[in-house]
Structure prediction request, 1368 residues.
Amino acid sequence: MNKTSKFHPEPLYDVSNLGHVELNTPDLAASVRFFTEVYGLDLVTTQGDSAYLRAWGDHDLTSLKLTQARQAGAAHIGWRVMSPQALERRVAALKAYGVEGKWIDGDVGHGAAYSFIAPSGHRMEVYYEAEKYVPAADKKPYLPNQPQKFSGRGVAAARIDHINILTQDVVKTREFADQTMGFKLREHLIPGGQGEEVGAWMSLMNKAHDLAITKEPSPTASGRLHHLAYAVENREDVLRAADIFMENDVHIEFGPAKHSRTQGFFLYVYEPGGNRIEVFSGGIHIFTPDWEPVTWGTEVKGRSTAWGLGVPESFHKYATPDVQVPEATPAAKAAAMAALSE
Amino acid sequence: MNKTSKFHPEPLYDVSNLGHVELNTPDLAASVRFFTEVYGLDLVTTQGDSAYLRAWGDHDLTSLKLTQARQAGAAHIGWRVMSPQALERRVAALKAYGVEGKWIDGDVGHGAAYSFIAPSGHRMEVYYEAEKYVPAADKKPYLPNQPQKFSGRGVAAARIDHINILTQDVVKTREFADQTMGFKLREHLIPGGQGEEVGAWMSLMNKAHDLAITKEPSPTASGRLHHLAYAVENREDVLRAADIFMENDVHIEFGPAKHSRTQGFFLYVYEPGGNRIEVFSGGIHIFTPDWEPVTWGTEVKGRSTAWGLGVPESFHKYATPDVQVPEATPAAKAAAMAALSE
Amino acid sequence: MNKTSKFHPEPLYDVSNLGHVELNTPDLAASVRFFTEVYGLDLVTTQGDSAYLRAWGDHDLTSLKLTQARQAGAAHIGWRVMSPQALERRVAALKAYGVEGKWIDGDVGHGAAYSFIAPSGHRMEVYYEAEKYVPAADKKPYLPNQPQKFSGRGVAAARIDHINILTQDVVKTREFADQTMGFKLREHLIPGGQGEEVGAWMSLMNKAHDLAITKEPSPTASGRLHHLAYAVENREDVLRAADIFMENDVHIEFGPAKHSRTQGFFLYVYEPGGNRIEVFSGGIHIFTPDWEPVTWGTEVKGRSTAWGLGVPESFHKYATPDVQVPEATPAAKAAAMAALSE
Amino acid sequence: MNKTSKFHPEPLYDVSNLGHVELNTPDLAASVRFFTEVYGLDLVTTQGDSAYLRAWGDHDLTSLKLTQARQAGAAHIGWRVMSPQALERRVAALKAYGVEGKWIDGDVGHGAAYSFIAPSGHRMEVYYEAEKYVPAADKKPYLPNQPQKFSGRGVAAARIDHINILTQDVVKTREFADQTMGFKLREHLIPGGQGEEVGAWMSLMNKAHDLAITKEPSPTASGRLHHLAYAVENREDVLRAADIFMENDVHIEFGPAKHSRTQGFFLYVYEPGGNRIEVFSGGIHIFTPDWEPVTWGTEVKGRSTAWGLGVPESFHKYATPDVQVPEATPAAKAAAMAALSE
Prediction:
């Protein structure tokens, strides 16, 4: 029996992948410049107050929408499903859960979507119809099994990979993701002698995670973004990215190093709008049908990262939109720190 | 609609992964020595004329069974399914297809399996129950989300990845794999001006391929193995493997280089028993639900590999068990060469 | 005693490094485009029929001069010396050897140089005064121990590394290089049962080679270029370069793979003017004062490259300027092939 | 003119390389086990209370002597010179400087050496005669331009690279190294608004450093070792080393990350005897004859490492032999921290 879900009799594969994310930014021009010139995405089009971008390895037309707003943050998160039937089933499951969603007509790059607010306060949507990217002549790849010519510009982020959201109630949010969309719990963090689960890493198919859910450090905030990650193919690409960020005066917050959870090789920076962006490579592969979620406690030899690198305090406290995070009690602080060290 | 199958109304995820392969070898002792000391697997146990091995990153107890035999080749290929229900469904589909299989009690590392001969002549089995590897104290990994301590011995092959079989009829074999087990066609090769499909690359979930099916160069042979591949995590690991093979007098046939199909970074050697073994890294990732199979023709700028490296003739002709492959007609030869250049 | 020279009582360190090379090209515009946009050099300036370029890691202002000419080839090779006194000594040694040189005033990037024709027919020069590169504000590196900001453009070739010239008489040419300039013989190739030395690899200080000298395949040609190489820092950069060449329709002749001689990780392409250009990484390091030249014969397990990759015939025959190379006798052919497989 | 020395009219190349280091250890057996099984060196022989080891890429017989002692630390540091004449010249220079040395007969792996105590309190020796390593049959490399078969065991440290010593007076120590042995100053650190030089990086030929000299944090200690480093060829080897240290419960103090000074990619651990040991890769290459020493101040955008990773306090305070380092004044502390962040 598949051990990762109590909600489904068999593993559920109705949701396919993280399709796109909309990030708010108080400085759209600077954010677009960062994502295109330094991070290496392509600008697909602009419309109203938004710019649509894509990575060279994204299958669909666009994976990132940047929108001018008062504050940074994740405006919405788009999960693509497997088929029209899967979309119907997921909408039914959301309604059965009690979620009050609405259908929207779509946006640049995708069709009708069912938009809803998750218990964590994040706006999400599920959709099936999406526009496949068709390269113009100068973007045509040499190898036809790749959507677009490799540009090699800047970090050359290859494809959208995962998102990390904050929530007041990790268990509730991950059970929601499992029950309504079929996210599989791969690992979670329950600091020893405390009992509260403060982090959960979930994936849809073979990856270590498509969705990370960690404890919100502010007692009142809701719907905040911890980080959005694009993947690159090799660890060397992450090291190269660090040099490129360094040369372009981009603030490196954390990494390159190796996570304990997911074992991903990571590098976190802030884009000019303030959102935390990751360059990610690797991570464990989950091929077995009976993966048992790994439960981590802080007692695991005291290491927050695989090789012992400490987690900077900002990584525990800062998220978008930015709010004043009150000084935590020592116990709460330890829990939050453990939770966010992924 | 999912474009990759005409046999299923929706993508089918009943088969989970390549669970294990049994290779025949005329020199069991030498093969075991190669796979443990050079390739870096661990010997799990021996029983009768067989040795059972595992890679440090394999979830299940064993992924490779080596059996003393008169000739090299793949004795059987084990596909693990998602659940007991999925097993029932797949057996029903096999029977509906007309396959005459039989239930076997299991083997070291797995339980009851439905064993059958595929139209390509290969013995395969589907099974659900498998024994999870539990490390002894000295094999316990530092990070609990990994089955076993990383040994770093030799090539340190990380996990079983894919198998390439030969068949007289590529289309029939891939349609069988799709219809009965839900393999998804990702890429295929139909040399221009010829019309015969000579290669197909199929996967179960996000990988570029779990099963490669290429045209048998011998007009009469059946059930032959082209190669078995284990994965490593980075391209540097493949380059390092080349040095280790070189220092240990292992015959390197092809690579390291990058395939056009799958884009995998590859290295092929012969183990002492004669079977072709690959060290594989990377490959395209398929996250989209509407992947359209890529059709390759030899006219694609004439390159059999991504960077132009030519394919050695042995790669087109040699397989296990070894048979005399008659000199092909020039036309057939061109087709076979294109087919096998993956 | 230092074993590498019979000409000097002690190791001689008067010549410092390969300072610059002038390449002729029949299509200056296309060559400049290749070297800047694909290979990743910067254009420093143009003057007359020449363009001056530099790599981001070159200490001096310019390391490559491209000159419009009827035929491709190496117009001259500039060796920088250690000091004004070293320059005097080297000029004296050249004159003592019988070389008829002349002083020239200098060129963009360097001062007075003593220009001469080596016995191999190549125009060379030795010089001390050179202009150090001073980056403009937008090229200023983050780390001040690096000459210029890392651009990451294209292949991002990091610095000029070595040159491979062809000669009718390898022994004579390498003894000249040793006797007059202090090049140290590191490795040479004398195919078994033949006795003729057909390749020599020489370096100035710690590198595997700054100068490679191999047997000219044409019985009459003189002063030809086999290839010019720039270095990158890691093998991954060479693999990345292969993708970039592939996407930009640059003809890849050979590699990526690992040489036996020098152990360098290599990749050879043709620039649009026809010259063979290498992307090089690694290579053995020579720190010991008593390195004994390694003598290679073809019998070394028959491998021309470390991992067994065969050498393409063009690598044996093609050089710039291009001449018709007559069909060699089988014996001569074998020797030439062995010689050029480096 | 060569800008790196006021003591020599021309660049001096009499000292060739760091030949060997003797480390004291209070637990010889554990240290030997670490250096062989984890770090990947080979045990050459034992004699008395000492064990002699070598890396697979070392040219000479042995590069590390481990000696049972009450306290960890560097017992002596051996610099190999270029020739017998160079040895005479260096001994003369040492005597002219006022150093009181003595000739010793030699040790396993090398002949007569002139042993002396540097102004920093470290015992050093210069020597020319050394025993070249000759591999037994099972250690014979496939490629004859390499001293020994690549084992791939553990970290597989490739060759001795550099040493970092502590001194009360950085300027005095580096001027001594330059004046008597010809070490070239490549970079030094003089924290802004303070004036005291607290770090100097010096090399013999093309490397970023063979000798690092940093400020002793204890006001009274003398002759202490900060770290000894062996090199590996690629950054991936350093990342791999981190996994191997992790799996073998070796304390990782710092890294993997990239230094600002030298730009080396580093990883520091403690061997069981307590000495800090580095795995090092890369570093800038110095080919130009007129390198001007780079002067660093702490004001360089506040980064102690290239990508912003903070330096752990132990890296500033801990050295061998271990002494109680008194709490520094804030100003002295800042200086020491800057100095040691390399």
